[in-house]
Design a protein that fits this description.
alpha+beta, 10 helices, 30 strands, disordered N terminus
Length: about 550
């Protein structure tokens, strides 16, 4: 059995750390890395003058019940008297959590899970020398069909359509504040120092003010949101004028802990930012993180989050923090310069809200340099930047109105129809001007069943291609209905193509309920299963199509 690249990265990165099992549906168990011997604890009520040492009392009681000789240490949150981290050798056991949950003073206790960036520098891309020619490389801002840094020729218009707004004089406002919750920001960068706010920045890794970047990732995200524009230097962000605040909880390796993530969000909430930009993920559902994002929501803050880089269906298997069921969360998938969803990007027809450029994105990095990176990490600041620009045009907007505009005004893209809620890629010009593109999807009540059968051998053979052609001569549109799909996820793939051999959908893995593909224009299509050299499974079975005449 092969191990996916993303899982290899996680296992390598966190091998020496505690792995906390979390049970999922259908009996699956995922091991999530956490800081060994640490628990994040929240009290039911804030300590008062009579209960100032509540956490110390809880720790003492826990130590006694566990029968430990070594002292359990208390590390108080800087941002909330309700939270603390308890640490000690015996806290890795589930007994410790049970004892704490039974303490009447404790709201909950959770492992101190670890999180990581969801973007990386392209291996083939060195830092770009400083010159004034980089605007032509920003295909996400203006796609005129230029090739990306990997040589892929772009599709004209597959961008966020911000240039017409700049030409109208809409370039943002420094009254709009965006917290970049990440590895920090190099606020001395020539393309950022006018918009980056180091005075209010903070570093929760090293517990110092400022929030200087020691990685590159946070500076890259900040550049997409708010690199200075029209200054003859480097690149331009979505906003030429904006306030980006570094709130650092990820370290020089791009990794951070639950306690610091929660404190970063609480800190940004206290600053009164408009938007939090979150290009990181990992870990299971945690009540502590949910509560922090909910508190941000209660203060009117939009929480923009990367959908993740595991080619995962977030509707079926949540990815946090992007999948928290809170209405201030905007989950972002990544697209390439041809409006295709990125091969690595997570997706979800209901749980991932929008898509934005995230493949081979040029932006600022520390030391005054520039580099190309890819990931839903890079898509997220496009959406954070769009949200800031939109808010600058109407400061009375609420987070709910901003989110609604992001979704409704996205350009409709066939390949994203079943991948994100918006069915397309964000368009800031549309959002600012309230333009809602026409959805070309045929009405649902027009579809009729059409008998057609096709199925692979059960099991199928390794290293083989199975192709099934479909022809319904008078159909204007058709859809394929799979009764079942069972292939090796990520390796054995089903491709559904239209009559011109354009791929409409690519499917892999196991679907236990019927799956209806996106619509195909015309009555000709094909379904192909391509298998690799290992693990033969049951393939697929089709018993009908749906057509519109």
């Amino acid at each position: 059995m092969k191990l996916s690249f993303s899982k290899i990265i996680l296992l390598c990165l966190f091998a020496p750390l505690a792995l906390m099992p979390v049970a999922l549906a259908k009996g699956k168990i995922i091991q999530y890395p956490s800081v060994p011997g640490e628990l994040v604890v929240k009290l039911k009520s804030e300590p008062n003058s009579k209960t100032l040492n509540t956490f110390e009392s809880i720790a003492s009681n826990l130590q006694r019940q566990l029968g430990q000789r070594s002292v359990i240490k208390v590390r108080h949150f800087m941002t909330s008297e309700n939270f603390a981290v308890l640490s000690g050798a015996g806290l890795a056991s589930t007994d410790a959590q049970t004892i704490l949950q039974n303490d009447s003073r404790v709201a909950y206790a959770e492992p101190n899970y670890l999180y990581h960036i969801v973007g990386s520098k392209d291996a083939s891309s060195d830092k770009v020398p400083n010159n004034d020619e980089k605007m032509s490389q920003l295909w996400g801002m203006k796609n005129s069909g230029q090739a990306d840094s990997g040589g892929q020729v772009g599709k004209v218009g597959s961008d966020i359509n911000v240039v017409p707004l700049w030409n109208e004089g809409i370039t943002g406002s420094r009254n709009i504040k965006v917290a970049v919750i990440d590895t920090g920001i190099d606020y001395t960068h020539p393309d950022l120092k006018g918009n980056a706010d180091a005075v209010n920045g903070y570093d929760f890794v090293n517990k110092v003010a400022g929030g200087m970047d020691d990685h590159d990732h946070g500076t890259h995200c900040a550049g997409t949101i708010g690199a200075l524009g029209n200054n003859g230097v480097g690149v331009a962000g979505v906003n030429w004028n904006v306030t980006v605040i570094p709130v650092k909880f990820l370290d020089s390796q791009g990794s951070g802990s639950l306690d610091n993530a929660v404190q970063a969000i609480q800190y940004a909430t206290k600053l009164g930012v408009n938007i939090m930009s979150n290009s990181w993920g990992g870990g299971p559902f945690t009540q502590a993180l949910y509560d922090a994002i909910k508190e941000a929501r209660d203060h009117g803050i939009l929480f923009v989050a990367a959908a993740g880089n595991d080619s995962n269906d977030n509707d079926a298997s949540p990815s946090y923090p992007a999948t928290y069921d809170l209405d201030n969360v905007v989950s972002v998938a990544a697209t390439d310069n041809r409006d295709n969803i990125a091969s690595f990007s997570n997706y979800g027809k209901t749980k991932v809200h929008v898509a934005a450029p995230g493949v081979k994105i040029l932006s600022t990095v520390k030391g005054g340099d520039y580099a190309v990176m890819s990931g839903t990490s890079m898509a997220t600041p496009h959406v954070s930047g769009i949200s800031a620009l939109l808010w600058s045009t109407n400061p009375s907007y609420t987070y709910a109105q901003i989110k609604d505009l992001l979704i409704k005004t996205s350009d409709k893209v066939r390949g994203l129809n079943k991948k994100v809620l918006s069915r397309g890629r964000v368009n800031v010009y549309n959002a600012v001007h309230g333009i809602i593109p026409v959805d070309p999807t045929p009405p649902e009540n027009s579809w009729k069943d059409y008998t057609y059968t096709a199925e692979t051998p059960h099991p199928y053979v390794e290293s083989k291609t199975y192709r099934y052609d479909i022809l319904v001569p008078t159909a204007k549109y058709l859809r394929v209905v799979f009764d079942s799909i069972d292939t090796e996820a990520g390796y054995d793939k089903i491709s559904v193509k239209d009559g011109s051999e354009t791929e409409i959908e690519s499917l892999s893995g196991t679907y236990t309920t019927p799956y209806v593909t996106d619509y195909i224009v015309g009555g000709r299509a094909s379904v192909t299963l391509t298998t690799d050299a290992s693990m033969n499974k049951n393939g697929f079975k089709i018993q009908k199509l749906q057509v519109i005449y």
